[in-house]
Amino acid sequence: DAVGFSINLLAKQGAPDYCGVLVSNRTEERSIQLAVRVHKTLELADDKFYVITCGKSGFGRDDNSHVILKFFDKEHRVRETVYGHEYKIRAELTKPNGTYGVRVANCFAFDKKNVTIQLIDERGCPKDDNIISRFVPSADGHSAEATLKSMFKFPEDSEVHLQCDVIQCYGRCMDEEDCKQIALAGAGAVGFSKGGNAKLGPNEEGSLAGTTVFVLDPSQAPLVTSTCEDTINPPWLLWLAITLGVLFLIMLLMNIFLCTAMSCSCANTEIIEKEPSIIEEYDPYRSWHGSQYGSRYSLHGRDAHKGYTSGGSTIHSNRSDRY
């Protein structure tokens, strides 16, 4: 059995159809608690409780989709653009799955207030060649690229939302129509409906792709372009890094040289132990010259001066008394 009912999430408190909807003032999300009971009055373990929340998500990027729209500035993907600058818009297939070609049609831009302008019609032709070119498929058939000749913006919003129909061809794509002939025939005056489907041929499948970019004033262009270049900013930071690198290299070479010199010196130096000095044998009869008592002679001196003079003594004689 199934039961269907509707809940008015916009009902105000006190209204007849108000059902306890909770509103978040910060995110504008509306939530309601729902209980599915097995028994009318008893609360059982098999009962289910749910919280249903509806949020105001708006329009955002979906990079997980198999079809992605990207803005490029000189082969660098950007999410912030500059008013009046030229960019490339690329529709890519992340999972080609045997795709042999890509066509892009029915592109339009809009803001938060749903102000919409059409860029590419359902045939894939640009509405204004001065704003955007036609999407040209790549050689591998996995992407298509168009040139946005002048970035535009809406008067009251700095965000531009872009949405396109991307047609994947699993065989041979439909022959592209001549946009110039269509313009001459007045086909460009045909209206469009936002989110309308482009014409699909046999073996073709359409997908919806979208992206969002911020449009900045030209005065802020250096801040955006500097992040897209393959250079180091500011320039003095590069020179500082080079100087520090050279100094580090010089110090490293000096340390290697000093360590090598010290290791070689330690390897070639032999530790020489000093031999103990040879102490001459003590001779108590050896003469000691230069005493304050005059010249003294030992018994082994000259024959004319045998013995010691009276009243004299020498260091050797004093020491000899101990023996």
Polypeptide structure, described:
There is one protein chain. With 323 residues, the chain is α+β, with helices and mostly antiparallel strands. It is 16% helix and 26% strand. The chain has four helices and 13 strands. Strands 5-4-7-11-10 form a five-stranded antiparallel beta sheet, with no helix packed on it. It has a five-stranded mixed beta sheet with strand order 6-13-12-8-9, with no helix packed on it. Strands 1-2-3 form a three-stranded antiparallel beta sheet, with no helix packed on it. The longest helix is centred in the last third of the chain and has 34 residues. The radius of gyration is 50 Å and the shape is extended.
Keywords, separated by commas or semicolons:
323 residues, Immunoglobulin-like, 4 domains, five-stranded antiparallel sheet, five-stranded mixed sheet, 4 helices, 13 strands, transmembrane, ZP-C
Condensed summary:
With 323 residues, the chain is an alpha+beta fold. It is built from four helices and 13 strands.
Structural class: alpha+beta
CATH architecture of the largest domain: Sandwich
The end-to-end distance, rounded to whole angstroms, is 136 Å
> Which stretches of 5+ consecutive residues score pLDDT under 50?
57-64, 187-196, 312-317, 319-323
* Number of domain units: 4
Number of separate strands: 13
Topology as H/E string?
EEEEEEEEEEEEHEHHH
Domain ZP: 1-186
InterPro entries: ZP-C (IPR055355), ZP-C_dom (IPR042235), ZP_dom (IPR001507)
Keywords: Disulfide bond, Membrane, Transmembrane, Transmembrane helix
Transmembrane segments: 236-258
